[in-house]
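pasting for ref
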Amino acid sequence: MTAPRGFVHDTADVADSALISEGSKVWHYAQVREDASLGENCIVGRGAYVGTGVEVGPNCKIQNYALVYEPAKLAAGVFVGPAVVLTNDHFPRAINADGTSKSADDWHPVGVDIREGASIGASATCIAPLVIGRWALVGAGSVVVKNVPDFALVVGSPAKRVGWVGAAGHPLTETATGEWVCPVTDAKYREVGPEQLVEIPAE
């Protein structure tokens, strides 16, 4: 029995082998390539591109005109803003050194791995290979060239950490040396090493 398929707009280009899970929506002029998979309740906005074999977890949002090139992996609850680019070629060239056109056999794709709950702001570019940590936030227009820690707020070109954010997405406030609190949820966090933050379990 075929699994239920989510909504695909008439103008979208979705490969027969792509998995569009129940509750997911692929909107106007978006393209989802062969063997890509969308978990439940995802949104792929107008004109967005999801490459061959890309894995998208449940409850993700890929906004208008975002380009998610294979072999990217998006965990549950990831937000990819409008016009974001996730690259896949560490040494991009159209031709080889001898002048011949590059083919699929002349390069090895590398991906961007975005962990649970992370958000990538509008028009940011993530240069593969790299990992965006859990609940991290990449500011709009940033160029990310190295791994981003869990809960990190990074901005700029190249992107640098300028603070911490909680699961609610708001910047954390430092309350004591190495301890931080979310102004929205009151969740508490602690720095446990250089560029490393963990949530303190509620009592």
